[in-house]
């Protein structure tokens, strides 16, 4: 695997960490790989470690090269600076697709909470859009209780037929981002005729990430949220079908 951390221009301390799976003669079907851009949450105040490298590792095991974006936050994260960071990350990945043995038309973006808002923005109003969206307990509406740094735009009204296919997962007992955020975006996708899947778990709260011991060290929490970890195989099965991987 090739590991490279790239400093990027932006309003804040912006970086893109690349985890590139290298070709092997033993795996001839694993060339020109699909990839995923990981956009952590953190209320536009920080980028959560729990929703960064662990997510990249989960997709690496499924044959996807992965990228983690650390975008502008705090005062530097005033809108639309984070969106510009995400657009630049997409451009960079596509510009180096040949070097990294990637398919530039099979790039998904996954975001969590505020990172889900940024991912949804990238797929609806972004100038450089991914080919699929994965939204984990996303903020969508401008009533975003989880985002305190500043107000960012409501996004469901920007969904069109050109919005990429989308996978959404969340928990109905989320005490930070009401479930209506996910439902409103799903309704907009349905109205626009965009393929999507929506998975609402009955418990899990906010920020459950992979819902494994890696990100939830408390044994009681792991037992409570174990079912939520199913989003990973469900998502990769969906994404493989969308991208025609297997």
Tell me about this structure.
This protein has 246 residues and is α/β, with parallel strands linked by helices. It has one domain: Alpha/Beta hydrolase fold, catalytic domain (Rossmann fold), CATH 3.40.50. It is 27% helix and 22% strand. The chain is built from 6 helices and 8 strands. The chain has helices at 53-60, 81-95, 114-124, 180-192, 219-225, 231-243; strands at residues 2-8, 14-20, 33-39, 65-70, 102-112, 132-136, 166-171, 196-201. The protein has an 8-stranded mixed β-sheet, sandwiched between helices. The chain is globular and about 50 Å long. The mean pLDDT is 92.
Quick recap of the structure?
Helices cover 27% and strands 22% of the residues.
Assign the CATH class.
Answer: Alpha Beta
CATH topology tier name: Rossmann fold
Order of SSEs: EEEHEHEHEEHEHH
Number of domains: 1
Strand order of the largest sheet: 1-2-4-3-5-6-7-8
Radius of gyration: 17 Å
- Structural class from helices and strands? alpha/beta
Give the uncertain stretches in residue-range form. none
| Shape label | globular
In which range does the helix fraction lie? 25-40%
Distance between the termini: 22 Å
Number of helices: 6
Strand content: 15-25%
Largest sheet: 8 strands, mixed
Count every beta strand, where a strand is a DSSP E run of 2 or more residues.
Answer: 8
Would you identify the CATH H-level superfamily? Alpha/Beta hydrolase fold, catalytic domain
**The CATH architecture:** 3-Layer(aba) Sandwich
Mean pLDDT comes to 92
């Amino acid at each position: 695997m090739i590991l490279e951390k790239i400093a990027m221009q932006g309003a804040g301390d912006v970086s893109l960490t690349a985890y590139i799976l290298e070709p092997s003669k033993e795996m001839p079907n694993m060339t020109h790989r699909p990839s995923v851009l990981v956009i952590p949450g953190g209320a536009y105040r920080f980028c959560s470690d729990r929703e960064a490298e662990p997510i990249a590792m989960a997709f690496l095991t499924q044959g996807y090269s992965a990228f983690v974006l650390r975008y502008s936050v705090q005062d530097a994260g005033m809108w639309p600076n984070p969106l510009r960071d995400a657009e630049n990350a997409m451009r960079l990945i596509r510009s180096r697709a040949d070097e990294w043995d990637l398919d530039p038309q099979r790039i998904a973006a996954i975001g969590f909470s505020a990172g889900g808002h940024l991912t949804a923005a990238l797929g609806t109003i972004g100038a450089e859009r991914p080919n699929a969206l994965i939204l984990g307990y996303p903020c969508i509406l401008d009533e975003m209780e989880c985002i305190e740094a500043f107000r960012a735009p409501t996004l469901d009204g920007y969904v069109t037929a050109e919005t990429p296919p989308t996978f959404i997962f969340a928990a109905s007992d989320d005490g930070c981002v009401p479930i209506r955020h996910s439902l409103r975006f799903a309704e907009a996708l349905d109205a626009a005729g965009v393929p999507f899947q929506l998975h609402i778990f009955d418990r899990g709260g906010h920020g459950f990430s992979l819902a494994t011991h890696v990100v939830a060290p408390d044994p009681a929490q792991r037992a409570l949220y174990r079912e939520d970890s199913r989003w990973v195989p469900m998502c990769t099965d969906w994404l493989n079908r969308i991208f025609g991987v297997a």
